[in-house]
Structure prediction request, 182 residues.
Amino acid sequence: MRKSIIFLFCVLLLSLSLLACNSDSGNKIAIIDLAKIQASSALQKVTTHIDAYRNSHMETVKAAENAFRKKSTDETRQAYSQAMKEFEQTVGEEEQRIFTALSDGIDKILARYREQNNIQVILIKDAALSFDPSLDITEAIAAQLDTIELGLEQTPQENTQTDTPTDTPTDTQTDTQTDTQE
Prediction:
């Protein structure tokens, strides 16, 4: 309890000192709501992609599991174990690749916004005890999230199959159709 009070007191002092800096010297502070950022359409696309990627790679694991259930031998157990290991590694690498690109992209967006708007500090909403709503830049940042290049164009099926589906137009076909319509 004592540590909590000390922590809240420190946060209060930090907030007050930052607000004092903001009003006296022309320094600017901005606030961002991470919950709203996480709910943005750009991050929903990331979640959808990872879920689809996970599901597309789960087929191999399910096949190995079914084989093991039908005939429980050392060979089928090892095949199942190997399939799970490869699944976890493959999905983990994809998640790491996307989250690294996302984190780097958000850092660049925040840095650019901060520089363009002469902001010295961007705080997370949860770190501020109270603030003027005009300091909230969440919507401006969320609007820029779609500009982050995450490599989501490559569908999970492209990662596991070498054939392109025949009923889906390729980028070249889509571009040609768009050019023709213009």
Remarks:
- DSSP finds seven helices and two strands in the chain.
- Residues 9-13, 155-182 have pLDDT under 50 and may be disordered.
